[in-house]
Write a structure and sequence with these properties.
The complex is a heterodimer of chains A (201) and B (246). Chain A has 201 residues and is an all-alpha fold. Helices cover 93% and strands 0% of the residues of chain A. Chain A contains 4 helices and no strands. In chain B, helix 1 links the parallel strand 4 and strand 5. The chains are: A mainly alpha (201), B alpha/beta (246).
Chain lengths: 201, 246
């Protein structure tokens, strides 16, 4: 039983590490979108009247990239917070394991002291830590769902930019290229978020 | 499970050695822990590492209520000495740990807080257990830079930490040194490598030579008794230490 608990908490810690890595990759991609949107704004300016709509959408995409970065920073802070909770759980699980062994090796007074201890403080502390982890996971899932909605908006903006690019006259090919890059990059973020959701499941 | 062996008893004053765990994994060095009881009070000397806590706890509780242990002594900062601190604190959060001042901000990484540690000054200090005064004897650089041993003037026992330690071969389970010449061969390499200072060694030999010692109890290996204590001090005084190769 104690070994299973230790494995569970170890798995939980590894899961947080994987989530953090995924968040880092989304943050890097959001930064890329921000730069791409800035370039798109300059390109739209050069294209003039024919790319007015594209320019508006590029501005929106830039705002989207900044919102996404903020959202991911909050997500990262939350996972950092959960490292402390999971570490406490790992420590508790380790204590569980040692006490379990001590109980098996003891008899008489020693065993009854450990039984009493595990019934009172120790068991409660472990249950409390597990509940904290569950609450953190619920908040994390909610935040990932909110982020997915935000990214869906980004995806719609990228598609609209593609349509606007068709009206770009002589700049149409360049605008099409830029909007396709937006679409592909936002697609990468969507895949990362799907992966994050799976980690939560 | 370790065995609890009473090595001294007079009235309510008692020394219990917690030794030889047959279930100990080979990758862990074998350690001896000592419980000094005086009446209803007790101190555990070098309580040991996390991994051997179950063996120590179970052997100890067969002889004494572990909840009544309110003092620990750590000869130095090593994990095989004191990494079980957090576990003892679980059973008694008020427990105090006596240790060289040098380590009072390092050992809290194993557990405890600013109230847990009672720093021992370099010159040593006394620890009262029940009605008995125990003396901490400076043994700096043998092998740790902040290192103490414990002398009990009533029982005439010196707890000598790593000094006197022997890495006994498998199957040698004797609690006391039976044949000094044979035993000391298992101590030689350890002392040459772990004891880093000739000067510290000479100081220690001079210091403990002034004490009336009937038993010298190391943290690893067997206990020296009677004349063997003098022989050990003489042997150690002559031994060249601080060598990488024995």
């Amino acid at each position: 039983m104690a070994a299973v608990v230790t494995q569970d908490t170890g798995r939980e810690l590894r899961r947080i590490v994987r989530i953090n890595e995924e968040i880092k990759s989304v943050v890097a991609t959001a930064f890329k979108i921000n730069l791409m949107a800035m370039n798109a704004i300059f390109l739209a300016k050069r294209a003039g009247q024919t790319a007015l709509g594209f320019g508006v959408l590029s501005n929106e995409l830039r705002r989207f990239a900044m919102d996404l970065q903020k959202q991911m920073t909050a997500l990262r802070e939350m996972t950092y917070g959960s490292v402390a909770t999971v570490t406490a759980l790992v420590k508790q699980a380790r204590l569980n394991r040692v006490l379990d062994r001590a109980r098996k090796e003891s008899s008489g007074l020693g065993r009854s002291i450990i039984d009493e201890f595990m019934r009172s403080r120790h068991g409660q502390a472990y249950a409390r830590h597990r509940e904290q982890i569950a609450a953190l996971n619920r908040r994390l899932s909610q935040m990932i769902a909110d982020t997915a909605q935000l990214v869906e908006l980004g995806s719609v903006l990228a598609r609209s930019a593609k349509i606007e690019a068709a009206y770009g006259g002589p700049f149409s090919t360049s605008l099409m290229q830029v909007s396709s890059d937006f679409e592909r990059t936002i697609g990468e973020i969507q895949r990362s978020l799907e992966s994050l959701s799976k980690q939560q499941d | 499970m370790k065995t609890a062996r009473v090595i001294y008893e007079e009235g309510g004053h008692k020394w219990i050695a917690l030794v030889r765990d047959p279930n100990r994994p080979e990758y862990l060095i074998d350690t001896n822990e000592y419980l000094v009881i005086d009446g209803d009070d007790a101190i555990l000397l070098d309580p040991g590492g996390n991994e051997i806590f179950p063996a120590v706890f179970s052997a100890l509780s067969a002889e004494f209520d572990p909840r009544k242990i309110n003092k620990l002594f750590a000869s130095h900062q090593d994990p095989d000495i004191i990494s079980s601190l957090s576990l003892w604190l679980e059973f008694n959060p008020q427990i105090k740990c006596h240790i060289s001042w040098l380590w009072t901000s390092f050992v809290p990484h194993f557990g405890g807080n600013q109230d847990t540690f009672i720093p021992i000054p370099d010159g040593g200090s006394d620890i009262t257990v029940g009605g008995q005064r125990l003396q901490t004897i400076p043994a700096h650089y043998l092998h740790s830079s902040g290192n103490f041993h414990v002398y009990d003037p009533k029982a005439k026992i010196l707890f000598s930490g790593d000094v006197g330690a022997a890495l006994l071969p498998p199957g040698d389970e004797s609690l006391f040194v039976e044949d000094f010449d044979r035993h000391i061969r298992h101590a030689e390499g350890f002392h040459r490598r772990w004891m880093g200072s000739e000067r510290a060694k000479r100081d220690w030999c001079n210091r403990v030579s002034q004490l009336d010692i009937q038993m010298m109890c190391p943290q690893h290996g067997a206990i020296y008794r009677g004349e063997q204590v003098r022989r050990f001090i003489d042997w150690f005084a002559q031994l060249e230490v601080g060598l990488v190769k024995g």
